[in-house]
Amino acid sequence: MKRERYERYIEPFIEYFGINPKYISGKDIQNYLLNNNYKNNPGLVKALYDYYNEIDAFRYVIKKAFDDLKSIPEIEIIIPAQSDNETAAPLPEKYNDFINSLKLRKYSPRTVKAYSSALKTVNSWLFQNHRVMVDSLDPDIALKYFLYLVNDAQASYSTVRIHRFAVEYYHNIILKHPIDLSFMNKMKKGDHLPTVLTRNEIIMLLRKITNIKHRVMISLLYSAGLRVSEVTALRVGDVSIDNLTLSVKQGKGKKDRITVFSHDLVGMILECMDGKSAGDYLFESGYKGKDKLTARTVQAVFKRALVKSGIKKDASCHDLRHSFASHLLESGTDLRYIQLLLGHKNISTTTIYTRVSTPGLKGIKSPL
User: Fold this and answer.
1) Active-site residue, 171 included
2) N or C: which terminus of the chain has fewer CB atoms within 10 Å of its end residue's CB?
3) Of 94, 120, 249, 252, which is the active-site residue?
4) In the annotation, is 131 catalytic?
5) pLDDT tens digits along 79-98
6) Is 192 a catalytic residue?
């Protein structure tokens, strides 16, 4: 089985149960399939079917789910299908130069993927709608594209910003033909407040996670204010038990920083470190032994715990980082220390937590 498929479907499955897949009962697998809405997730069923065949461990419930899918139309559309008179857009002329330039500037793989995908999306839309390539894009057609992106596609501010960067970088840096997208300068950014879980909600959530490794990695998202990519990249040598600190290496923006974690986690962290060397990942994947966990696995663990806890907020893993900052602020920690712990370049990014951390409001009673 290819690694990408394993990481997408099998790794979260194994991490969910925390035991050898051969010992997972048919009833437990059935509940897992139902909880993951398997009839609308054929990729999961097929992956489990193939995986259990590979390890020579037949499960009737997986075979039955696989047979059920044969009578269900499989629809998984990411890009609208082309009509007969449409042809796929060729790649931009200097697409490879674009990719290599981003890599040379040490953008993260995730960022390179986001910008390259954006450039291809722009190019495809231009080719299908105006029969031009992004290489020959002018400001007038660019305006039409971004109007489509904002009004028809209902793209978020961050998505529009990524697409703008991709176009400008390709034209200004790669083609050496600057393009004027100044009409985008006054685009308003949505004013959204981060979701913050209360301390009690976080305790409720953590109590629903029985697997030690899972509980530690979710706990560190909150206790240390980590991003998902940072918790999966932690190595044993990054942990200082004596100082109760973590060394975050090459976080967002390629920055290193030191952050803290709770003394209550020491015992469980030591358990995760047991038998490992300094260079080993603190949280290892089940795929070929020594690889790090994927972000998808961490997100799946969090979502399951959120549902089990009965918390009705639309929260994500990243909201534990928001909660970390908000609770520190409520406890009287100076904003500049919070900035350092979070790794924010500008204090203005950290000040958003002053809007969600409002202990003074809790003493105000509604007049009704």
Assistant:
1) no
2) C
3) 252
4) no
5) 344 444 456 788 999 999 99
6) no
